[in-house]
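For this section, I looked closely at the sequence of one protein beside the tokens encoding its backbone, which the following lines show:
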Amino acid sequence: MNEIVIINSIGIIIGLAALFTVIARTIKQPPIIAYILAGVIVGPILLGLVGPTTDTSIFLQVFSRIGVALLLFIVGLNLDFRVLKEFGKVSTLAGLGEVLTMAILGFLISLSLGFNFTPALYFAAALAFSSTVVVVKILSDKKELDTLHGRIALGILIVEDFVAAIVLMLIPVIKSGDYSLILFQLGKISLLIAAIFIFSFYVLDKLIHYLAKHQETLFLFGIAWALLLAAMFNQLGLSLEIGALIAGMSLASSKYTLELGGKIKPLRDFFVVLLFVFFGSRLVGPLSTEIIRDAIIFSAFILVGKPLVVMSFVKLFGYKKRTTFLTGSSLAQISEFSLIIILLGYNLGHIDQGLMNLAVLVSLITIGVSSYSIHYSHKIFNKISNFLNIFESKNAHQAMETRQKKKYDVFLFGYHRIGYKILQTLKNNNANFVVVDYNPRTVLALSKIGVDCIYGDAADSDFLSELPLQDAKLIISTIPEEEANITIRDAIKKVNSRATFIATAEQPRQAIDLYEQGIDYVIVPHHLGGSFISTIIEAFKTDKTKYAKAGKDHYRELKAAKDNSTFSE
């Protein structure tokens, strides 16, 4: 093995990945696209630095397996069961329904395109999952991860990750075709996982508490635990990937999870670069017209079919068409798990190079296009809203009823985040108010405690036109989306209302835009929070007792709000 050649090749690979990442960010693409394209450039099609017989390819393959292990370890650490608890029914049904529906349809399409049975199964599995890495990154950048559609999408992704983990676990097991052996292996896996979680609960929690005293030791332990379980599962003839995932999940309940994940993520990011570069380098030419045709067909199926399937399931739970669309459009790509499944099948000899090429092309197309569709999802919805009435739940109109005819002095748009605090003030002042929210669970919870509610979307101008805004004296929007606040302002002007309008913005730049649009006052939570804490510091100085007392009062307030089952909405 020529070390100098490998070092030079890795330097070129990392340099290209960095260059493409800068370009990708400029054109609003996720880094994954940049890494895969860098792999295509250095692969057999162009530079030929990485190929089936090169030393660099062997090096990359080893490092890509480490990247898979660390990636899934972090996924396991961050599986947020609170999201599933909050949106368990819709996430579970939509997640399982989407995976099953897309897998069946993908299998049938694969067969119709001439695939053999086993390759069709692999590609059906690859089409079923959406990318947690891509969706979380883009929604986080847009400040939409904590929105209603963001939390539903995250819940669906968690369900999909579990299913993908099971698929990765079963692929090596079903290779034998011996059903008695399959059952034996599944039993062995179940016992092994149970033993790991028991060991983690009774031993690792105490061990981590001791190790956390030294940051370097905690860092090394996390890496060792991830790779040790990955190697152990691999040695037992099971999936390396599921071993790493279980390693992360076994530590997910530890109070040191965030610290551990934060320290390992930079190392993971480096290996993930090499992982996706390796995927890109698997694209081996020449690309036939048949492969390009199949890539276009499957990509269209993912970009159009997957959102429609998700929207159909989310609709069943009474969410409005805007929520269903934003949720569905977030998931219109294939997953990093999809590429791992295809690579696993390729290494096992179940699929050939042609299918590997096809998977890489579909990932490039779907991740690339869906990145733009997520980024501009609100504008796309406004353009096609009239064509989405089939996804408007019938329950969406039930909360309107007679409340639309009743006159209110105050309208509060959006209960989540700061809205719950404003609600308390309105109640204490005996204000004649109504809450408008697009989460049916919030509407139901508030209705149970006697609060007038209207179920609807503040960004929907047709919905706003049905509200008696002309009689309002004060209109408050806690929704940080600039477009929604502009829509409310337009609705107020349309009915010649003289109501004071208070809007909300995440950033000062957005607040300036809203002021220039004629809004009376704009809430900027970070600025108000800074002003509030400044007042407290001025009053308390350095008196620890006063801070502790205020903290306890704040805790009791938050706990009471949460126990009312409305704060978390």
